[in-house]
Amino acid sequence: MTTTMNPLFSLSRATSLRGSAGVLAAACLLAGCATGPDANPRDPFEPYNRGMTRFNDKVDDVLLRPVATAYTEVTPRLVRTGVSNFFANLGDLWSFVNNALQLQGEGALNSIARFSANTVFGLGGVLDIATEMGIDRSKQDFGLTLGRWGVPTGPYLVLPLLGPSTVRDTIALPVDAKGNLITYVDPVSDRNALYALRVVDTRANLLRASSVLSAAALDRYSFTRDAYLQVRSQAVQTDRRGEERYDEDAGKLPPEPAR
User: Fold this and answer.
1) Residue with more model confidence, 19 or 121
2) HSE-up of 45 (CA within 13 Å, CB side)?
3) Looking at CB atoms within 10 Å, which of 69, 133, 134, 149 has the fewest?
4) DSSP conformational letter for 40
5) Rounded Cα distance, 133 and 129, in Å
6) pTM of the full predicted structure?
């Protein structure tokens, strides 16, 4: 489940070390006076988080949603699908690294097979050949890798512009940034253009979900927080053998309806 600013969370992998550390420190300082005996143990920073959510929603209302709406209206569905496939393909390579770090052999094999097939035969990832071949996606990030080795999610934390997170996921941002291939694109103007396109594409894919959320949830903040924490805590599940298994569909959005 996502909120209106959750698309930017997915771009948090491009955050710099200093930026993410500063965000975490500022959040903790601002939230320090928000804790108390009645605080939600999973959300001790709630007053700060709600304020940041309102700020993020304003940015979304003024900028992101209008741009994403215009993008869906003027860009053919086939092109938008290719853009989404391209960025997902880049993520498969980083998923391979994290699956390997988690000693998940099948997930690592699937991730590198997907990246190789889509890059070579799918026009650099524009076409999702791997899915047609029946190769499952095993999406992972460094926050989940930390969780695999016992690091708890920590309190809920809403980041400026990046949206829902946890203390563990925020600490993982600098490492995830290094694993984002866009980070290494030169010149900088091309890199920034790719970042902007990814923001717009991700937000466009969430237009339907955010509309449903706005209509259905009495308290969008609490609903989003609880859903997000559940997704992140259950992404790593322990089976009866004590081994780790991963819900690859956790937080996945339903497909966009055909026009």
Assistant:
1) 121
2) 25
3) 134
4) B
5) 6
6) 0.77
Q: How far apart are CA 94 and CA 115, in angstroms?
A: 10
Q: Which of 199, 146, 192 shows the shortest CA–CA distance to 170?
A: 146
Alpha helix segments (H runs only) across 133-180 = 142-148, 167-178
Alpha carbon separation from 4 to 56, 63, 207 (Å, rounded): 8, 12, 8
Q: Hey, is 125 helix, strand or coil? A: coil
Q: Is the pLDDT of residue 163 over 60?
A: yes
Closest CA to 12 of 1, 3, 23: 23
Whether 124 contacts 88, CB under 8 Å = no
Residue bearing tokens 């143990």? 41
User: Taking the CB of residue 138, how many other CB atoms lie within 10 A of it?
Assistant: 21
DSSP string across 46-90: HHHHHHHHHHHHHHIIIIIHHHHHHHHHHS-HHHHHHHHHHHHHH
Q: DSSP 3-state assignment of 139?
A: coil
User: Considering Cα of 217, then 158, then 10, then 171, what sign does the dihedral take?
Assistant: negative
Residue whose structure tokens are 């016992």: 150
Contact present, 97 and 179 (Cβ < 8 Å):
yes
Q: Which residue would you say has higher pLDDT here, 252 or 94?
A: 94
How many alpha carbons lie under 13 Å from residue 231 in its C-beta half-sphere? 21
Mean pLDDT of the chain: 82
Closest residue by Cα to residue 196 from 5, 8, 6: 8
Plot region of 171 (φ>0 → left; ψ -120 to 50 → alpha; else → beta): alpha
